[in-house]
């Protein structure tokens, strides 16, 4: 047996906080050293924080990471532990996203990322240059380039995130060059359903390359990106470890590298592919690392926790629905919490609580964050701390119902949040009269304007309160209604952080149903008794003014995510909802496309939003559409 203990760390780093990030790394590495870890794998860009975007163009920021790297090397010198971590590196007029390997007080090599994503939420090619296969240079006598590292226990390769996403990435040639253990340093954002995709893809890479593959992911939120952390360890495709997510922590597992060698010997396909590849050698260079790694005499062969090498393990504690809801709620709570804490400008969190579904869910997510923040307190003290930090305001007009008032008051009471009723009726009447006076006798205040006046009064009051209280004002609107422009600029579109702006309405309802089932909040049940609607006019229902949310979200997905033309969207709706009357789907799709395109000017004025899926209405992140565009192309002759 050739046993090695591999540690996977999820570090919550803050962009620009190089010293604090360094200290977090050192705390985790000290714990790993005490546990006898041989190889420690830390995330991508852990020293500078990710995404650093254009901040990386400040040379002082990059230099600070280089200095922190050497401080970590010095601090871990006596342990003999191999450490791999991510940082930005400047070299000959280029900036590189790199993985550095440390051992016995030295930086023994630096490997630049080759696959730089520039799609969806990523913009790495804007500032970083890719590594070159087969190229090796030196920075201050440190090897820099396409490297593998020979230690006393075996050969190690390092790569970064997207490098492992490609079947023909650097992992392939480095394994053919002899790497047995591949460390993938990642900063991969959360999105719904991501875990299954990651797990399957990384298991496939490990199997294809007949290697032991370790994957460590960044945790925490920076701006609108949420990193769920966690990590995997595979041995030639066999899962050995799945690390915890949504919190800074680490996990370790002992592996037998002799298994990798044996399976390579047995696999004629892998050996023949390796021979053919070496005939056209890309020039991966070996770095022989002198010096002992930690003693492995106390390591034990890994055994399955359920006591059988042949029988499957116990079934998962949660089903797919529970997994989906819990992961999404955890991601959104982490997004609120890190935005709140890392900026450092806020003393609490405030929400305009209407008693409707969106603001209710936003309140519950904020409460989820605060509950975990104050988890160390006893229940009574925790509830008091939450009351100090979570304030909500119900601002009724003549159109507000007793049902929503009751739901808002009840959920605030159940959560321990401070609740205040602040009527806007008098101000509403005054603003309506002033608007009429500005229009003159020949024009009347429109229905939409009356609705918007109410929304803007609420938004203005929340901003005024936020300015004076230094509380974080959360925007509560959902993705579906934002896509249709069913929002008010200066009103319900207001806030410092949009929590649900990328959560479709059908998912909002599902999450509330899940929380009702799992937590039993009476406030959610009361909320569901009232129809979904903004209560800005009499008997107002969102689905009456838009379309059924099931159809709206289908239109949104098919048109905006799958990029289908309107005629194709109609065909899919006909198959999805055959019970609807003929011609209805054409009307819905026409309405959706028209309002979708006409509302883009609103999106660009919306606050920063949390990214939780493959589709995002924040224009600078995912769906980059022109503000000024026409739908003429959809009406082809």
Structural class: alpha/beta
Supply the number of helical segments.
20
Label the CATH architecture of the largest domain: 4-Layer Sandwich
Got a strand count? Answer: 22
β-strand percent reads: 15-25%
Characteristic terms for this protein:
637 residues; alpha/beta; Nitrilase/N-carbamoyl-D-aminoacid amidohydrolase; Rossmann fold; 2 domains; six-stranded mixed sheet; 22 strands
Question: What features would you describe in this structure?
Answer:
The protein is α/β, with parallel strands linked by helices. It folds into two domains: 3-288, Nitrilase/N-carbamoyl-D-aminoacid amidohydrolase (4-Layer Sandwich); 321-541 and 605-613, Rossmann fold, CATH 3.40.50. 40% of the residues lie in helices and 20% in strands. It is built from 20 helices and 22 strands. Helix 1 packs parallel to helix 2 (59-75) and helix 8 runs parallel beside helix 10 (402-415). It starts with a strand and ends in a 28-residue tail after the last strand. The relative contact order is 0.08.
Give the SSE map.
Blueprint: E1 3-10, H1 18-34, E2 39-41, H2 59-75, E3 82-91, E4 94-103, E5 106-112, E6 136-139, E7 142-145, E8 147-151, E9 154-160, H3 170-176, E10 181-186, H4 194-208, E11 212-217, E12 219-222, E13 225-235, E14 238-245, E15 249-256, H5 257-266, H6 268-279, E16 285-288, H7 320-343, E17 348-352, H8 357-373, H9 379-389, E18 390-394, H10 402-415, E19 418-421, H11 425-439, H12 447-469, E20 471-475, H13 479-483, E21 497-498, H14 505-519, H15 522-529, H16 542-545, H17 549-561, H18 566-576, H19 584-598, H20 600-603, E22 608-609
Parallel strand pairs: 1-2, 2-3, 8-16, 9-10, 10-11, 17-18, 17-20, 18-19, 20-21, 21-22
Antiparallel strand pairs: 1-15, 3-4, 4-5, 6-7, 8-9, 11-13, 12-13, 13-14
Helix pairs in contact: 1-2, 7-8, 8-10, 10-15, 11-12, 17-18, 17-19, 18-19
């Amino acid at each position: 047996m050739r046993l090695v203990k591999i540690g996977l760390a999820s570090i919550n780093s803050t962009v620009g906080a190089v010293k604090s990030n360094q200290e977090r790394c050192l705390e985790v590495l000290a714990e790993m050293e005490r546990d006898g870890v041989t190889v420690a794998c830390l995330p991508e860009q852990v020293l500078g924080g990710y995404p650093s975007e254009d901040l990386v163009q400040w040379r002082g920021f990059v230099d600070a990471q280089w200095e922190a790297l050497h401080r970590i090397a010095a601090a871990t010198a006596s342990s003999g532990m191999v450490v791999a971590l991510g940082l930005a590196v400047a070299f000959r007029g280029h900036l590189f996203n790199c993985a550095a390997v440390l051992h016995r007080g030295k930086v023994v090599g630096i490997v630049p990322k080759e696959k730089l994503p520039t799609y969806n939420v990523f913009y790495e090619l804007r500032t970083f240059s890719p590594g070159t296969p087969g190229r090796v240079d030196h920075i201050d006598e440190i090897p820099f380039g396409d490297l593998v590292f020979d230690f006393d226990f075996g050969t190690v390769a390092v790569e970064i995130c997207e490098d492992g996403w490609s079947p023909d990435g650097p992992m392939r040639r480095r394994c053919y060059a002899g790497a047995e253990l591949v460390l993938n340093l990642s900063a991969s954002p959360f999105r719904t359903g991501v875990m299954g995709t990651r797990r399957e893809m990384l298991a496939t890479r490990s199997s294809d390359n007949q290697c032991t593959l370790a994957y460590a992911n960044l945790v925490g939120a920076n701006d609108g990106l949420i990193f769920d952390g966690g990590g995997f360890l595979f041995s030639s495709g066999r899962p050995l470890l799945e690390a915890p997510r949504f919190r800074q922590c680490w996990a370790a597992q002992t592996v037998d590298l002799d298994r990798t060698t044996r399976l390579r010997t047995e696999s004629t396909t892998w050996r023949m592919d390796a021979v053919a590849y070496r005939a056209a050698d890309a020039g991966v260079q070996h770095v022989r690392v002198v010096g002992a790694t930690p003693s492995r005499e106390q390591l034990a062969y890994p055994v399955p926790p359920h006591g059988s090498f042949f029988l499957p393990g116990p079934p998962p504690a949660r089903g797919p629905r529970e997994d989906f809801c819990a992961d999404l709620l955890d991601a959104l709570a982490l997004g609120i919490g890190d935005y709140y804490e890392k900026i450092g400008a806020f003393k609490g969190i405030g929400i305009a609580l209407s008693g409707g579904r969106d603001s209710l869910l936003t309140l519950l997510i904020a409460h989820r964050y605060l509950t975990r923040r104050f988890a160390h307190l006893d229940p009574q003290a925790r509830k008091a701390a939450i009351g100090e930090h979570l304030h909500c305001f119900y601002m009724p007009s003549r159109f507000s119902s007793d049902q929503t008032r009751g739901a808002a008051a009840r959920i605030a009471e159940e959560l321990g949040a401070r609740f205040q009723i602040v009527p806007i009726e008098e101000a509403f009447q005054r603003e309506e009269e002033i608007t009429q006076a500005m229009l003159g006798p020949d024009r009347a205040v429109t229905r939409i304007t009356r609705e918007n006046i109410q929304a803007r009064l609420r938004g203005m009051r929340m901003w005024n309160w936020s300015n004076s209280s230094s509380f974080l004002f959360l925007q509560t609107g959902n993705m579906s209604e934002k896509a249709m422009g069913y929002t008010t600029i200066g009103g319900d579109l207001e806030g410092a952080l949009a929590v649900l702006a990328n959560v479709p309405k059908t998912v909002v309802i599902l999450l509330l149903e899940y929380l009702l089932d799992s937590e039993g909040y009476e406030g959610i049940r009361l909320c569901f008794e009232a129809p979904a609607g903004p209560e800005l006019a009499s008997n107002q229902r969102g689905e009456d003014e838009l379309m059924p949310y099931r159809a709206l979200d289908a239109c949104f997905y098919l048109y905006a995510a799958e990029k289908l033309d309107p005629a194709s969207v109609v065909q899919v709706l006909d198959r999805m909802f055959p019970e609807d009357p003929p011609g209805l789907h054409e009307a819905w799709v026409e309405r959706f496309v028209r309002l979708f395109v006409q509302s883009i000017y609103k999106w660009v004025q919306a606050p920063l939003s949390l990214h939780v899926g493959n589709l995002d209405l924040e224009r600078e992140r995912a769906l980059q559409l022109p503000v000024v565009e026409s739908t003429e192309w959809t009406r082809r002759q």
